[in-house]
Design a protein that fits this description.
9 helices, elongated
C-alpha cells in the first residue's frame, strides 16, 4: 500500500496529528479515529462476521491505540501498525472464545520442500474472481479458520502486500503466502459445498412441489 501524505479535516497532516496525539492532544486523536475507523471496523467485521462484535472490537482497538500511540516509532506505515494492533485485539478475543486458530508459522507444503515445481502462492486466484454469489462468499469467509481468514482478509479484501501482512502478523512472507493459498483452497471448497447444498435444496423443493401437484 502506498502511504500518501494525508491531510485531515482539521487541516493538519496525519503525521502531525500522530505527533500531537502522542502529546495527549484529544482533537488530534479524534482526527486519527475519524480517518481510520472505517477500515478498522471493516477488518474486525471480516474477521468476526458479527456486526455487534466488530463495533466492540473497533472501540477496543482504538482504546489500545490511545494507550500505546506514544510507542509508535514510524518504522512502518501508521495504518500497518494500527492494523497489526487490531488483528492482535481480534485474535485475543477469538482465543478467549476458545475458537481453533492456525499457526502462522506452518511450513510450506512438503512437496514444495522436496524441490517439485513451485506454485506462486501469492498470485491472483482467477478461480475465485468471477461472479460469485456475495452472500455465499461472505458466509464462506466466516467459516474459514481465524488464521486463514485473517490473511485472506488482509490480502484479498484490504489489499495489503505479503511483506506488509508479515509485518502485521509477525510471520514470514513465505508463511503469509502459504496461509493465503490454503485460505483460498478452503474457500473454494466451502463455496462448492454451498452450491451443492443450494442445488440439493432446489431439487427437494421442486420434488415437493411436483408431489403437491399430483
Amino acid at each position: 500500500m502506498t502511504q500518501a501524505k494525508k491531510i485531515l479535516a482539521s487541516g493538519i497532516t496525519e503525521a502531525e496529528a500522530i505527533d500531537r496525539a502522542k502529546q495527549g492532544d484529544a482533537e488530534s486523536f479524534e482526527a486519527l479515529y475519524g480517518l481510520h475507523k472505517r477500515r478498522v471496523y471493516s477488518l474486525c467485521l471480516r474477521m468476526t462476521g458479527n456486526t455487534a462484535e466488530a463495533e466492540d472490537l473497533t472501540q477496543e482497538a482504538f482504546l489500545q491505540l490511545y494507550r500505546k500511540i506514544a510507542t509508535f516509532r514510524g518504522e512502518s506505515a501508521f495504518s500497518t501498525w494500527l492494523h497489526r494492533m487490531t488483528v492482535n485485539v481480534v485474535l485475543m478475543r477469538l482465543r478467549r472464545k476458545s475458537l481453533p486458530t492456525d499457526s502462522l508459522e506452518e511450513t510450506l507444503d512438503p512437496d514444495q520442500e522436496k524441490g517439485s515445481a513451485k506454485r506462486d502462492l501469492g498470485a491472483p486466484d482467477l478461480r475465485l474472481s468471477g461472479a460469485v454469489d456475495r452472500v455465499n462468499l461472505e458466509r464462506s469467509i466466516e467459516q474459514l479458520p481465524p488464521g486463514y481468514r485473517t490473511v485472506f482478509v488482509l490480502h484479498d479484501v484490504q489489499g495489503y502486500e505479503h511483506n506488509e501482512i508479515a509485518d502485521i502478523m509477525g510471520c514470514s512472507v513465505g508463511n503469509s503466502k502459504s496461509q493465503l493459498h490454503k485460505a483460498r483452497t478452503r474457500l473454494r471448497e466451502l463455496l462448492q459445498e454451498e452450491i451443492r447444498d443450494q442445488a440439493r435444496q432446489e431439487r427437494q423443493s421442486a420434488k415437493a412441489q411436483s408431489g403437491t401437484k399430483d
